[in-house]
């Protein structure tokens, strides 16, 4: 069966038309014999199909953004909506370039690769995601929001290429992960890390006392640093302690404060 051309696809009427792009047609898909379906026209109109793609991408981005907005994250409703919408628009433009100039000979000066747009979108989202990751002391925040922005871009790209089912499923799965998996996290037993900084006189050395104290409470030292100030003859220990009990920092600092020579304690 002869596959319809792009111009024939635009003239064809019906509720929804999917164009089959095979390996033999334009070498678009790398696996011979496999094929993918892309929504080209909607009710016989290419413009309507583009409108639906943009609206669905904006809706999916808004759904993900509302969940982040609810938790007071810096990248919320508007950011996710714009990321998904912009990604969709870039894919639509990339597809339009390919359909318009895709018949150019591959040996010419101009070579079109629609995959480049997707690659550049991912690169741009990487910079945007880095902007929402915040390091406060020893705590890193914003990783989930950055990942959500990355997914929003992917969803927008899927809708932009007409992969409505893939975009919808990805949106639903992402929303389930953001809402329901958070409820399961307290049920998972995981290591917690206490960052403890202690400043004390260099003589006598309090490290053996601290080591015994941690061992008695079954606290494991994951990392340790020590700085000696020759001017004040004070030493500062920085510990990263693995613990299973929550909020042990206050209790532990009160015990350490009773050790002779301790001048300052900071924990997080």
Characteristic terms for this protein:
268 residues; alpha+beta; Alpha-Beta Plaits; 4-stranded antiparallel beta sheet; two-stranded antiparallel sheet; 10 helices; 8 strands; 21% strand; elongated
What does this entry look like structurally?
It is found in: Cell membrane. One of its GO terms (cellular component) is plasma membrane. This is MgtC/SapB family protein. Belongs to the MgtC/SapB family. Keywords: Cell membrane, Membrane, Transmembrane, Transmembrane helix. This protein has helices at about 5-10, 25, 45-70, 75-100, 115-130, 145-160, 165-180, 180-185, 205-215, 250-255, and strands at about 15-20, 35-40, 135, 140, 190-200, 220-230, 235-245, 260-265. With about 270 residues, the protein is of the alpha+beta class. It folds into two domains: about 45-185, no CATH class; about 190-265, Alpha-Beta Plaits (2-Layer Sandwich). It has a four-stranded antiparallel sheet with strand order 6-7-5-8, with helices on one face. Strands 1-2 form a two-stranded antiparallel ribbon. Strands 3-4 form a two-stranded antiparallel sheet. A hairpin with a 2-residue loop joins strand 3 and strand 4. Helix 3 runs antiparallel to helix 6 and helix 5 packs antiparallel against helix 6. The longest helix has 25 residues, at about 45-70. The radius of gyration is 28 Å and the shape is elongated. The N and C termini lie far apart (about 70 Å). Residues about 5-35 have low confidence and may be disordered.
